[in-house]
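This part of the workshop introduces the protein records we will be handling. Getting from the letters to the tokens is the skill we practise here. An example says more than a description, so a record of this kind follows:
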Amino acid sequence: MIQKNINKLPKSVVEVTVTAPWADISATWDQTLQRLSADVEIAGFRKGQVPINMVETQLGSKLQDEVLKTAMPNFLIEALKGTDVVPIDYPKYDLVNFVKGQGIQFKATITNRPAVSVGNYKTIKTVRPAIKPVTDEEVGKVLDDLYKRWKTRQPAVNNPQPAATQNTPAGSGSLNFQKSEIASSPAAPRNDGVAEAPDDTFAKAMGATSLVDLKDKIRKDLEANVKYNNELDYEEAILQEVEKITTVELPDILIADELNRMLVSLQRRVADMGLLLEDYLKGQNKTLEQIKQEWKPQAEKNVRMELGLADIARQENVTISDLELQAEVDKITDAKVKKQFESQEPRLHLRHALRQTRTLDLLKKMVGG
């Protein structure tokens, strides 16, 4: 029977010291030895036929390492049964003593799920930002920009044919212009039979029925984008209020994870600009550590916000059923991405994300949005 000593430290760090007698580990030792013996080769013996005592000598410290990989996690799980400790990271193991025939003692350091206290979230007051109307000037700017890029792709003939565009049927849905058209640089005016201003020919090349229809599609797309960003701003305002009323001692591991997530996001943005992160940092005259230090207050807010929302989900008994989870997985069209969700960990992350989203929707109803 194992002996344990649980020591709770600041920032949700927990040290667990476990002592187990040889009787509790001998079976693992024998099973591991038997498994490894199949691959041991010694001169004079067939592979897998080496006497077990010789196998044990040949393996040396490798045998002990393999036993510890299995034994320590199992003993830790047993030690935490019946306690309020719920690990949120991988344990760090430190072997104190291990002698065959005598037993084992080790120390495991883990981060416990922090205690979270959220104030009266049902009284949160947040005003939805006003939606700014799309102006004719904004529509015209997008139209002119598209036209300049489309014009550079036209052949220099008197009767040019429209450039290839998306397969969106005329008059249906929102616009989906080809990236190459957006990325091209404007060229100087040409006398090649192409109109000097957007016209119906250009509009039809863009998937519209006429120039008037194209302007209407552009306006609808801009309005949809404004509405989307407005909703994001509203949700952010609610989450900011949740963060203000959330009290929690933040574990270092969660802050580090959030900083890494923010860094990955930065790397993607920098890559979109065609730069390497190292070049970007040089341009900012900052080191990676300086960036992380600057970001730390925001990372702490983000973690506090996340934990507060999760605690509200717990209080409101917000759950995601297996059927709902599978329905989200089924929406994934990329076969490689979808295959990843055959593993348990990605499914856990997805379930958590769906639960957080549903909780935020619940809060929006409470606030009145």
About this structure: The chain has a mean pLDDT of 86. The first helix runs from residue 26 to 37.
